[in-house]
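To whoever is on call:

I kicked off a structure prediction for a single chain this morning and the downstream step that reads the tokens threw a length-mismatch warning. I double-checked the sequence; it's 263 residues and nothing unusual in it as far as I can see. Pasting both halves so you can look.
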Amino acid sequence: MRKLNSKILIFIPLSLIIFMLSSCSTKTKTSNVRVFAAASLTECFGEIGKALEKKNLKVEFNFAGSQQLATSLEQGTPAEVLASASIKYMDELQKKKVIDSSIIFAKNKLIICKNKSSNAIITKLSDLGGTGVKLVIADKSVPVGDYFYSSIDKAVKAGKINTRDVEKILSNIKSNELSVKDVVSKVLIGQVDAGVVYKTDITSRNKDKLEVIEPEEFMGNEVSYPIGVLGTCKNKEGAQVFVDYVNSKDGKAILKKYGFVVD
């Protein structure tokens, strides 16, 4: 009987060790994936994250302006994936070996959003320079701000607006925000008449209060979203699962649901 008991005592710890090792292995495969994503991806990526959670992959998001995310990653903040609203920032990070490689997964459009309670008449780009119009724009360092100023330059070169129009528009800017969501918020609460944002920023939650204006001068200025895995990624398997899902049929369906253009 003593021999039998001793065998049982030895067997139980070994089985526990095997179980613990197995659990650790499973946890590694499904461990958290940290995704840094442009603020304009908040809603759709939130839904993608929930879908992946059902597949045993927990995603931790950090949503902010693409320029803030790029700076943070350059400084060594740990993450697995970056989804940006700017090819420029992604290219810079690839040159610095912060990002391994990237692909374009979605596209967007630049629009003017106006508070429906505003009396300002805005149908074209030059109307942003109208007398008394209060305007909010993202800072030039923010992709949506960069796209806006780029659109102005192109419109001037094409003869669609003149330098006087530009002066009037710039003089009506009341603040320069560090996130497209901050631009939307200021228009939504009526602090300003209008702002320049992405088409996908007009959602079921705010469309009753915001009017969408798509000026001719913004046409052709396509906004591209690249996604890539970090070179210092601690969970490459999980990171690739996330990227693959974003580019899958189900992932694209979610992106389209929120107004993004996908192939």
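Update from on-call: the warning came from a stale cache, not from the record. Cleared it. Sanity check on the structure: The two ends are 71 Å apart (CA to CA).
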